[in-house]
Write a structure and sequence with these properties.
heterodimer; A: 365 residues; alpha+beta; Gyrase A, domain 2; Alpha-Beta Plaits; Elongation Factor Tu (Ef-tu), domain 3; 3 domains; six-stranded mixed β-sheet; six-stranded antiparallel beta barrel; B: 126 residues; OB fold (Dihydrolipoamide Acetyltransferase, E2P); six-stranded antiparallel β-sheet; 4 helices
Chain lengths: 365, 126
């Protein structure tokens, strides 16, 4: 894809001026790093980082039967969330594979706001519309929102300087509509790094001034602008799935270890395969791995057990926090116990690794 | 930054020829494009390397990149300090963080590589 056809967020000029390294990320020209992935990663673990995640998509479901549609489209127990609460869920194809993984924000009884992956947003919109047999209105709203993610132990202290909303009243996976720097914002305590976190959904024209204000507010904590590189190492340490890696159209939530995000007490799109796998078991399972030998597991590398092909690495990277090389992988369910010695094929050579529990990193409460 | 004493490849390696031996490294541009370097694989002393052929690899947090030998010959010395301190490749790629020294079997090869000014216009254009 040529640079000319890439989509850009309202913060593109800011990224360029900061000297960010820009890459094509699913059709978007996005910053992969500014000061360096390791520096940005540590900033989020120790203090605070600011991410432009405006490429993420937004879809809204409204109407008297909005609940019926989202509760059928999503795997999760949507009936359990209150107004002002967010929930992680899968959208599945009829055969049980993932269309996408999403966050559902319940704005009102007749209004659900979905945050979806950038490269899946049009597909998600079409999918939800195609299974809408209720009186529910599905709106593609991505152009109405920019999204900034403030992540790290100093995230609350940073955002609090810019809003009169008492952030201590917003619990994890809750949100409120308020103002930040005077700009209307949906303020959500959600994130993708394993740290305390706020995600701010704002109008696109508010994004640039808000970015600058957040950078100033975080200056005393040495806030860093963070790119997709650090976002990936942070979410991998936190054991979170990334579409196209741990999950895709060929993988079910049960295989991906996400059964806790599936509500089997209701009917949902793609349920048959999930129910069968819960009863009969799965043939493959997502596992964490840690390298023992010299080498770094990378996305797509083959895994051998006892000299025979057994699976593949879904995400692999150095872990800046743990100072180890880690990854996630699919292995045959019969061989997917923790502590098993496996070999990752690195440039043709088997390098020893061991299966470990995820998440790799959990913040102190 | 780009010394006239060195010759450069399109794959962003450099070589400094001193008599029968060439010292090989990756360029400042290469380390900058890669970002934080966390791993390096180098050939062993005694290994034969060929101009334009992969002789090792370097990995940053995000990326894996082959290292192509700018010259043909026998590896006579390896900078093993990089194995435990690969970040030196970000700090001093044209100096302390040289990769290997090669006893050149075809010294004339280096004439086909880029000069400093050619390399700078090459990376400016790419």
């Amino acid at each position: 894809m040529s640079a000319a056809s890439l989509q850009r967020t309202p913060l593109f000029e800011i990224h360029k001026n900061l000297g960010a390294k820009l890459i094509d990320f699913g059709g978007w020209e996005m910053p992969v790093q500014y000061s360096g992935i390791i520096d940005e990663h540590h900033a989020v673990r120790k203090a605070v980082g600011l991410f432009d995640v405006s490429h993420m998509g937004e879809i809204e479901i409204r109407g008297p039967q909005a609940f019926d549609l989202i509760n059928y489209a999503a795997t999760s127990a949507v009936s359990k969330i209150a107004i002002g609460q967010a929930q992680y869920a899968g959208l599945l194809y009829e055969h049980g594979g993932f269309v996408d993984d999403i966050l559902i924000y319940k704005v009102a009884d007749n209004h659900y706001f979905l945050c979806v992956n950038a490269s899946n947003q049009l597909k998600d919109f079409e999918h939800i519309r195609s299974i809408n047999r209720w009186d529910a209105e599905v709106t593609f709203s991505s152009a109405s929102y920019a999204q900034l993610a403030v992540q790290g132990p100093k995230a609350a202290a940073t955002v609090q300087k810019l809003t009169s909303v008492d952030l201590s009243t917003i619990r994890y996976y809750r949100f409120t509509d308020g103002a930040v720097c005077g700009f209307p914002a949906r303020i959500a305590r959600t994130g993708y790094t394993g740290e305390d976190c706020f995600e701010l959904f704002v109008a696109p024209e508010s994004a640039a001034p808000l970015w600058s204000q957040l950078m100033q507010a975080g200056e005393e904590f040495q806030i860093r602008a963070c790119g997709l590189g650090a976002r990936n190492t942070l979410r991998l340490e936190a054991g979170m799935a990334l579409y196209g890696h741990e999950i895709d159209a060929t993988i079910t939530p049960i295989e991906a270890g996400l059964a806790r995000n599936v509500d089997f007490s209701k009917s949902f799109h793609g349920e048959q395969t999930c129910r069968r796998q819960m009863e009969q078991g799965v043939t493959r399972k997502l596992m964490g791995l840690q390298m023992r030998g010299r080498g770094i597991a990378r996305d797509g590398y083959e895994i051998h057990i006892d000299g025979a092909p057994a699976g593949w690495v879904t995400s692999g990277s150095p872990s800046p926090t743990l100072n180890l090389h880690i990854g996630m992988c699919y292995l045959p369910a019969s061989q997917a116990e923790i502590g098993r010695t496996i070999h990752v094929i690195v440039r043709g050579q088997p390098v020893e690794a061991v299966t470990v529990p995820t998440p790799f990193y959990k913040r102190a409460k | 930054m780009y010394s006239d004493q060195y010759r450069y490849t399109k794959e962003h390696e450099w070589v400094l020829v001193d008599g029968p031996t060439g010292t090989v490294g990756i360029t400042h541009h290469a380390q900058s494009e890669l970002g934080d370097i966390v791993y390096v694989d180098l050939p062993k002393a005694g290994a034969l390397v060929t101009q334009g052929k992969a002789m090792g690899s370097v990995e940053s947090v995000k990326a894996v990149s082959d290292i192509y030998s700018p010259v043909t010959g026998e590896v006579v010395e390896v900078n093993n300090a990089l194995v435990t301190a690969p970040e030196k490749l970000n700090e001093d790629p044209h100096g302390q963080a040289w990769l290997v020294k090669v006893k050149l079997s075809s010294p004339d090869e280096v004439n086909g590589l880029m000069s400093a000014s050619d390399y700078q216009s090459y990376i400016g254009a790419s």
